[in-house]
Q: What sequence folds into this?
């Protein structure tokens, strides 16, 4: 029998006369509903709480496609590949931007032969520097050369957000992002902040580098970023004197990894 | 954990074999290999892989797939040799290919555990292999080891200016946190064609290389390691390059670098004891 609160005395007699006996099937149904309802509610609440800290993905105004160049391992030629990719796309009469997301070791300013501090537009956005027809933005323009950026992850997240959103990119067909090595804060921040059209993984043929390339691929797949393929850099060295070819870092390791991960080898550079 | 001295290996650029234990970003094991010379003198060496996102040490040392055991006295490191123990996140992953997609605070937590909870035993040298950059891992290690005396940092670079530019930042970082700099190692410095013996500079030192940079910044220059494909091969196979190819010019350079680091540590130790 349903327990009645003493307030029932105030209920109209028509209602009160029906609450004398609660059938068992109603009690069971109510109990099942409350437990599943409770569990569902808790799960939804947990999801809402966890999602609170995660930024919402939002496109950068004016930018049509975003390509990230990553690797996992450092020193395999990400920046070199990103710069040449940007130049190559620009050769097809596309408007290309290049963002150097390596906050700790920005290489793009030197590679693109750019120096100086970016100006601010009337709407307080940073104006990217331009060379070879590519608009570029890097932490290297905002700090002195030689000054280390000794920041923990939270500050890096904030810096990346500014480099993405507070730059006057204009109308871009492609934005190429040169990622830092690893699978940490920067990679997560960028994947959570903006929709990425595709990721290119750069590696040398060496097993050590391929291991990290595989980890980077797995990371992108986990955050639902399509991986376009693998680029094998430093594949072979040709002696300038006798033209003998040496595989300094091993031979064709990236092909085996690409086959394992069902990816294409986009290119193999010397 | 009783650690007689600590050394920190860093390099701002990836792939330059940072980590004292690991030379070059690509071949972390190189440095690790070179530390095997310490073993020959029966020093007890501990190797800590602080690169959470790209742990290469287990593969380079040939102990991939080993497990870390926990006992009453803490986590026990994986022993490659009787006197060389290693700890890496690579041993804690369920699969060797798993990606570690962690933000800074989680990485810091694990580094703290590695330093605090691992039962290294009595160790003569603790070598810390750091990832590229000047980020959470570097800050955490310097912070957690600040109570002990860190003998210094060995910085690895390649000869090209893009790399040196980042290494200057690393040097500035060490100076800011009062971390003594043992010296700079120039890696991938020259490649000798196996057919005609012509030496090529694959990463040309357009601005004078690491030697000039060290001279300008008044930092010791430890040595130039040539680019020998067999180093990378040894790393991939988990073998000791110094043992397998003792005749290589790179082996000679490694041994010389280790010797100079040992001298620095001995001098630093006596300076600390004198001031205490």
A:
């Amino acid at each position: 029998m349903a327990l009645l609160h003493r307030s029932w005395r105030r209920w109209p007699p028509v209602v009160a006369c029906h609450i004398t006996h609660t059938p068992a099937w109603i009690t069971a149904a109510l109990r099942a509903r409350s437990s599943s309802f409770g569990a569902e509610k808790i799960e939804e609440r947990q999801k809402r709480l966890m999602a609170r800290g995660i930024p919402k993905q939002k496109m950068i105004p004016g930018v049509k496609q975003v390509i990230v160049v990553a690797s996992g391992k450092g020193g395999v030629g990400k920046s070199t590949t990103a710069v040449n990719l940007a130049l190559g796309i620009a050769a097809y009469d596309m408007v290309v931007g290049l963002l150097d997301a390596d906050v700790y070791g920005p290489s793009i300013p030197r590679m693109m032969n750019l120096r100086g501090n970016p100006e601010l537009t009337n709407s307080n956005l940073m104006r990217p520097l331009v060379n070879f027809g590519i608009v570029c933005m890097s932490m290297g323009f905002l700090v002195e050369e030689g000054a280390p950026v000794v920041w923990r992850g939270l500050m890096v997240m904030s810096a990346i957000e500014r480099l993405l959103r507070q730059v006057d990119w204009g109308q871009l067909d492609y934005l190429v992002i040169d990622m830092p090595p690893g699978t940490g804060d920067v990679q997560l921040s960028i994947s959570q902040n903006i929709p990425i059209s595709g990721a290119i993984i750069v590696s040398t043929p060496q097993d050590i580098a391929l291991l990290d390339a595989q980890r980077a691929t797995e990371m992108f797949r986990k955050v639902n970023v399509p991986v376009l393929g693998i680029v094998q850099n430093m594949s072979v060295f040709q002696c300038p004197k006798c033209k003998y070819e040496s595989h300094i870092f091993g031979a064709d390791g990236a092909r085996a990894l690409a086959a394992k991960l069902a990816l294409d080898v986009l290119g193999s550079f010397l | 954990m009783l650690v007689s001295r600590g050394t920190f290996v860093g390099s701002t650029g990836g792939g330059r074999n940072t980590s004292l234990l690991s030379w070059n970003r690509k071949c972390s094991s190189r440095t690790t290999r070179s530390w095997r010379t310490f073993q020959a003198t029966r020093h007890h060496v501990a190797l800590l892989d602080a690169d959470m996102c790209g742990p290469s040490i287990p593969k380079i040392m040939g102990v991939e797939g080993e497990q870390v055991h926990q006992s009453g006295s803490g986590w026990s490191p994986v022993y490659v040799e009787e006197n060389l123990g290693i700890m890496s996140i690579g041993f804690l992953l369920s699969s060797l290919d798993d990606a570690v997609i962690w933000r800074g605070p989680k990485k810091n937590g694990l580094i703290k555990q590695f330093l605090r909870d691992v039962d290294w035993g009595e160790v003569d040298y603790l070598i810390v292999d750091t990832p590229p950059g000047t980020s959470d891992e570097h800050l955490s290690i310097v912070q957690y080891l600040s109570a002990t005396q860190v003998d210094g940092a060995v910085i690895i670079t390649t000869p090209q200016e893009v790399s040196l530019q980042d290494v200057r930042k690393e040097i500035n970082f060490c100076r800011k946190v009062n971390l003594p700099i043992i010296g700079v190692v120039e890696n991938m410095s020259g490649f000798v064609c196996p057919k005609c013996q012509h030496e090529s500079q694959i990463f040309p030192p357009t601005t004078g290389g690491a030697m000039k940079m060290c001279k300008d910044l008044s930092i010791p220059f430890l040595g130039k390691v040539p680019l020998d494909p067999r180093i990378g091969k040894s790393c991939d196979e988990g073998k000791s390059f110094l043992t397998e190819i003792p005749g290589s010019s790179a082996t000679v350079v490694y041994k010389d670098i280790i010797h100079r680091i040992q001298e620095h540590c001995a001098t630093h130790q006596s300076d600390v004891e004198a001031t205490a």
Q: What stands out?
A: Chain A touches chain B through 55 residues (CB under 8 Å).
